[in-house]
Design brief:
single chain; mainly alpha; extended; 6 helices; 148 residues; 58% helix
Length: 148
């Protein structure tokens, strides 16, 4: 593995310093350390719980496939096809779920186009669905969050 460049190190450690400053140092100016720790703990618990529920709705369900490597420990499925096979979209027409999940209800599009801004997912998802139909790839989706 190549060693990180100076720029990468500055970004990495700068991010860590920003996090610690934002989450601990500044709050400690205004609150006792016990309150800061309690609030950080509550924040971590609630966001972790929400992320777990969001990810499980798209990945940890019986409808998606769980491909396993074949000979020589190689996958026998195309990368893009595997992204579609291992994810499920839900409530794609729901403004609420798109906003609340950060557009992760469009999980397949998120996996196929991770560098695309989330606000474009609603326009891309129908294209992905149509392309899957065209190539005979099963596109997993349900219309509402409660169906997940």
């Amino acid at each position: 593995m190549n060693p990180p460049s100076l720029t990468q190190l500055l970004i990495f450690y700068g991010g860590k310093l920003t996090y610690v400053t934002h989450r601990f140092i500044i709050p400690l100016i205004f609150m006792p350390w016990t309150t800061v720790l309690l609030l950080n703990f509550m924040t971590e618990i609630s966001t972790s719980y929400w992320l777990a529920l969001t990810f499980q709705a798209s990945h940890v369900i019986s409808e998606v496939e769980w491909p396993t490597p074949g000979q020589n420990n190689l996958m026998q499925i195309d990368w893009a096809e595997m992204q579609v096979a291992t994810t499920q979209d839900y409530a794609m027409d729901s403004w609420f779920w798109t906003v609340v999940t950060g557009a992760l209800n469009h999980q397949t599009t998120h996996h196929l186009f991770p560098g695309v801004l989330q606000s474009h997912y609603k326009k891309i998802t129908p294209i992905v669905k149509k392309t899957c139909e065209e190539f005979g790839v099963k596109y997993h989706h349900v219309n509402t969050r409660s169906n997940v």
